Amino acid sequence: MKLRTIILILLLSPFVFGFQSRNKSFFPLGIVAPIEKDSLIHAAGFKFIGESVGRMISPSLSGEQFNSNLRSIGKLRSKLYMCNVMFPGNMKIAGPDVNEPVVLSYVDSLFNRAQKAGVSRIVLGSGGARRLPDGYDVKKATGAFVSLCKKIATIAAKYKVKIALENLQTKETNFINTVKSAAEIVRSVNHPNFRLNADIFHMRREHEPPQNIIDAKDLLIHCEIAEDAERTLPGIKGDDFTPYLAALKAANYKGPIFVEAGSNYSEEQIKFCFKYLSKQIENVYNN
């Protein structure tokens, strides 16, 4: 290589690599939405899409329905990365009415289908399924739930699926309402296939500090986000997420971040959401 060429490369490299750094994707972004919106979502910039267990991989779906879903999944431009609402509301997983053999049989079938569909993450929110009767002993419920989740995690490992336990606001359930309490359960389960989802929407609803994300950094495999007042797409109301995004940065979280804010939005709103959230993330990393 000629000396003049080498000198030119050295002179230009700070600009080239600086440009790449400024435009890197710090967190891969996904969005929970019907797969019918895949083309719109991909065009907006989202790399991943999330769906519900009930629509995509539930054991209650017939073989024909599931196979039809597999064909649809194979045509997606955005990758189907996760499914949420792991349990139907009438299948209790906490409290006095848990039927453990039924639950374990269900998750075995569910994880089998998740593996076939290429779904590597399943979010365990399911507020109705884990709601406790009023006045029920929370300590007793927690011990039994941890024991059940250890068994669920063992089955998940067989199918190479990871579960992300989600904190849910008190309006949705009365059990496990913060990232801090969810992290305590994940630590007690102590299984690599049973980890933590930090849902920033629910954190803000419960006035939970960003520090709790940092404190649980070794457990975190998933993160979800939406605006506070009406659970809208980031950018609709103009919410500032930077304290929580800064906590993710401090926790060395690698992503993805999933928008979970309903699905009745226009193409323009979804595109703006991607740009709005990306800009806040960029600002956090550049400060």
Description:
There is one protein chain. With 287 residues, this protein is an alpha/beta fold. The chain has a single domain, classed as Alpha-Beta Barrel (TIM Barrel). Helix content is 47%, strand content 14%. The protein has twelve helices and eight strands. The chain has an eight-stranded parallel barrel. Helix 2 packs parallel to helix 12 and helix 7 crosses helix 8. The longest helix is centred in the middle third of the chain and has 21 residues. The two termini are 38 Å apart.
Short description:
This protein is α/β, with parallel strands linked by helices and 287 residues long. It has twelve helices and eight strands. It has an eight-stranded parallel β-barrel.
The largest pleated sheet is described as: 8 strands, parallel, barrel
Shape designation: globular
**Helical stretch count?**
12
H and E string: HEHEHHEHEHHEHEHHEHEH
Fraction in helix: 40-55%
- Helix/strand-derived category reads alpha/beta
How is the quaternary structure best described?
A: single chain
Q: Can you say what the CATH homologous superfamily is?
A: Divalent-metal-dependent TIM barrel enzymes
Write the layout of secondary structure elements.
Elements: H1 3-22, E1 29-32, H2 38-44, E2 48-52, H3 53-56, H4 63-74, E3 79-84, H5 100-117, E4 121-124, H6 127-130, H7 138-158, E5 162-166, H8 179-189, E6 194-199, H9 200-205, H10 211-215, E7 220-225, H11 242-250, E8 257-259, H12 267-285
Helix pairs in contact: 2-12, 5-7, 7-8, 11-12
